[in-house]
Amino acid sequence: IRCWSNIPFITMPLSRAHGKSFAHRSELKHAKRIVVKLGSAVVTRGDECGLALGRLASIVEQVSMLQNQGREMMIVTSGAVAFGKQRLRHEILLSQSVRQALHSGQSQLKDMAIPVLEARACAAAGQSGLMALYEAMFTQYSICAAQILVTNLDFHDEQKRRNLNGTLHELLRMNIVPIINTNDAVVPPPEPNSDLQGVNVISVKDNDSLAARLAVEMKTDLLIVLSDVEGLFDSPPGSDDAKLIDIFYPGDQQSVTFGTKSRVGMGGMEAKVKAALWALQGGTSVVIANGTHPKISGHVITDIVEGKKVGTFFSEVKPAGPTVEQQGEMARAGGRTLAALQPEQRAEIIYRLADLLTDQREEILLANKKDLEEAENKGKLALPLLKRLSLSTSKLNSLAIGLRQIAASSQDSVGRVIRRTRIAKDLDLEQVTVPIGVLLVIFESRPDCLPQVSALAIASGNGLLLKGGKEAAHSNQILHHLTQEALSIHGVKDAVQLVNTREEVEDLCRLDKLIDLIIPRGSSQLVRNIQKAAKGIPVMGHSEGICHVYVDTDASVEKVTRIIRDSKCEYPAACNALETLLIHRDLLRTPLFDQIIDMLRVEQVKIHAGPKFASYLTFSPSEVKSLRTEYGDLECCIEVVDGVQEAVEHIHKYGSSHTDVIITENEKTAEFFLQHVDSACVFWNASTRFSDGYRFGLGAEVGISTSRIHARGPVGIEGLLTTKWLLRGDNHVVSDFSEHGSMKYLHESLPLPQRNTN
Asked: Per the database record, which ranges form the Aldehyde dehydrogenase domain (predicted)?
C-alpha cells in the first residue's frame, strides 16, 4: 500500500488468470462475467425529481436476460446521493412551505431558499429506497439481488479485501446479482483528482473507480460504463467539431479535450477514462456508452454484449489500417476530387482498370482459386454461391468490355445541364447533375461486382465504400488493389475504399453521417437485413426477385419453350430468373402445355403446383407453400389464370415488382400487360434475363431497384447521380420582385447545351 494526498491506493493489480482484454468488439459476445456501472445521470430523472423508473426497469430487464443466459452480472450503481438529495429537498420544501404558510402567507413561498445538503446525509436518505427498488424489479424476473456497500479502505485491508472477494464469488455462484455502491454515508468528501496523471494507480473515490477496481479484482471480462453521453468524444460533446471516438487506445488521451462532469453525481468523463484505462490494463474490456437515450437505452447493454457499435470501446490492439470512419472520410474527400476531374480523366481511369483486368488475369485467377479452395474445404457455400464466387478468363474479358462501355458512355454524366430557366433579366437558373456522395455497396460471393461498381462510382464521381463477403477476400483484395492503381493515375486513390475491418454490416448501416446511399448486392435475406438495419440512410435495391412469365392463349409455340427455358434455366440463381409461370386456363391439356412440361422435366426443373393448377390435376406435383417464393434454383411454381387481367392481378398480389413477361402474338393483349403491370421491368416476348444493366447497354449495374423513388430497374450511371441548382445573378434581391418592385419574373425555358455524343 502506498499513499498519495493522504488517499491510499494499490498499484497494478495481480495477474489475471483469464488473460488479456478482448481485442475487438465482435469478441464481447464471449464475455462471461460482466460489471455494469450506472451513473447518477442514468439512474435519476432529468428534472432531478426522482428516479428514472422506466429506464431502470429496462436496464434490469437487460441484466436479467444476460444473467439467465448463464452470464455472471454485477451492477455498480450510483444514484443514492442524488436520490437522497431529491428526497431531502422534498422534505425541506414541504416543511418550509408549511411554516411559511403559517407565519408569512403564501406570497413568500417563492422566496424560499433550499439549503446546501451534505452528501453523506443524502446518501443515508437515498440508499435504502434505491435498493428496495432494485429488489422489486429483479423479483419480476425471478432473480435475487444483494446489496454490498464498500469504502476505499475495504480494498486496502487484506482481510476485508478477501472477505469482499469471497462474498461476491459466493453470490455469483448462487446466481444472485450483486448491487454494489460506495458507502457514501461514511466516506470522507472526495479529494481532487490528483492521481489522474497516470494510469498505473487508482483509488476508490467514486463509482467509476469502484467499478474499475471491482472489475479487475473479480477478473471480469467486460465493464460497461453507462452515462448520459454517447461515449468518449475528441472534444466536449455539443461543440461543433466533436466526434464520437469508436475505439480508444491507451496513449490517445493526449488528443482528447475533457469537458465538465455529469449534471448529477461526482464523476466526469476524465474520471471514466482514467478508470477505463486502469481496468483495461488489468485485463478487463471496457465500453462507455449512453444509458439515457430513449431510442437505445432499451437495448444498449445487450447491444454492447452482442458486439454492436455502441459507445466507445477501449482496446489495447490498434488495427493495421484506418478505421471505417476514417475510410468514409477518405472516400468523401476522394470522391469530391474525383467529381472535379474532367470527364476524359474519369474515363481514362476506367479504361485503365479494364486493361488491368486482362493484363493481370493470372494474378486475379490465382487469388480467386484460393477463395474457391477455402470455400470448398469449409463446405459452407451452396453450389449457386460457389458459381457466383468463381471467376474465369471469359468473365474477366466480359468485365473489361463492360467497363469500356461505361467509360465511353460517361463523358457527360457529371455536370450535365438538364434544365435552364431565365428567372428574370440577367438572372439564369440551371439544374445540373452531381454525384450522390459516398456509396456503401455490400456484396456477397461476387468478386466481379467490385470492378463493376467501382467503374460506375468513378464514372459518376462518387466516393465508394465496398464491403465484400469473407468468402471472396483474396479476390476482392487484388481487384481493389488494381482499382486503386487505376485511380492513382489522376491522384484519386482514396475515392474507392475496401472495408477490411471486423465491422458488422449492421454497424456500417448506422454511419449516416458518412454514407449517403447503401446498395446491397446479394441474397434477399441480406437485402432485408440491410433495409432493417439502415438508420437514416436510403437503401437502393430489391429484397426479392419473384419474376413471372405469363403464357397467353395467342402465344407462339416456337417462342414459349425457348423463352421459358432461358428465363428459368440459363442462370436459376439470378434475381431476374423466372420463379412463377402463369398459364392461361385454355392452354391446359394442349400440345403446347405438354411441350412446356416436357422441357422443364428435361432441364430437371422441380415443379410446384399453385392452388388453382393443383385443382385441375388428379395427381399433381407438390403444392406450393407460398406463391411469394424466390427459389433461386431449378425450381418454379406453375399457376393457372383465366386471362391477362387475372395475370396482372396475380403479379400485383404475389410479385416483387422486379421483372415480369408476357408471351403472346396479340399486340393489344401485350400492350395491356405492358401498361398495367406495375413492375420495374415489363417485357413482351423476351426472357426475364434481359433485366440487366449490361444487356440494357448501361455497361454494368450496381443492382436492380424495385423502389419507386429515384432509380428503378437496372441502375447504371444515371441512377448514381442527383442534381443541384445553380443561380447566376447580378445584384438581384427578392424585394425587387414585390408588388411595387422594379422587376418582373420571366420564367422562360432556355435551350440546353449540346450533349457530347462521341
From this structure: 324-588
